[in-house]
Amino acid sequence: MAELVNKFHVKQGEQVYECTCYTLEDEATPKTVEGGSTWEIKNNGVVCYLGLWPKASDSVSEYSTPLTIKKNNVEYYVQTKVLNYFTVTITQSANQTIKVTCGGETYTETFQALAGSQYTVVVEPVEGYTAGAPTSSTGYVNSNLTISASPASKKQYLVTIQQSANQTITVRVNNTTDYTSNFTANHGDTYTASIKANEGYTAGKLNSTSGTITGALTISATAAEIIKCTITVTQPANGRIEVNSKTGTSFAINYGTSTKIEAIANSGYVVDALYVDPV
Fold first, then answer.
1. In angstroms, rounded to a whole number, what is the distance separating the alpha carbons of residues 244 and 99?
2. Across the beta sheet with 246-247, what order do the strands follow?
3. Which of 7, 72, 123, 275 has the highest Cβ tally under 10 A?
């Protein structure tokens, strides 16, 4: 800010008002009031400017002196100094923080900024959310300003369910909704996973059975295994029992497989009966 060392003095009774003389007209012009102007004078031969506040303004300047002048038929109060500060209002919203950097400082609450100051805005979300867009991301403070942002939104993630043969994985979200195919979930949703084998199979092992969704997730299981049924054979005297044309005392047969069991008598003997006891 360019100011002269020597001041312009206004005296009323015993009260003396010391007025700053600005070398730049722009700095001397009050910008926080409509119609602010300047008074050009010479201070020890140097051209300088005093700030002028419109007398008819509804707003009052705390820096007005009793001295008034008329310029272009408008009456003004001469100012002791000009502080062109504007109010920057920051309107915060849920699940995110608006940060405004201005004049080398970063603010999250309403502040005063020097007229013409450049500002930048960033919006930082809390974990699990995507930040909204600010009403302004950068600019200059040339009037009172309000900065806000659109609402933050919950992040969403793809949950992939990798089904495999002869079993079905079911994922329940927030204990309310069941899924058997890929779906999208919100950050923070909870889930439980279960698996059911088809008839004749034993279900595989799930890679996860429960948790909180904080990113992309894949639920899968090891392969289902077919149930093995055991056929135990007590071989008779004077003959034999064959299972699928094989002789023995124990056979492992896949569940659901068609199986042939045959009793065969030795020469000179006949089969009396074949007994099958289900387990």
1. 79
2. 246-247, 239-243, 261-265
3. 123
Structure tokens at 159: 């949950």
In 3-state terms, what secondary structure has residue 83?
Answer: coil
Rounded distance, CA 169 to CA 206, Å? Answer: 8
Contacts of 3 by beta carbon, 8 Å cutoff, 6+ apart: 20, 21, 22, 23
Q: Whole-structure pTM over 0.85, yes or no?
A: no
What's the length of the chain?
A: 279
Evaluate whether 100 touches 121 at the Cβ level (below 8 Å): yes
pLDDT tens digits for 217-257?
999 999 999 999 999 999 999 999 999 999 999 999 999 99
Residue 204 backbone dihedrals phi, psi, to 5 degrees: -75, -175
Calpha distance 90→103 (Å, rounded): 16
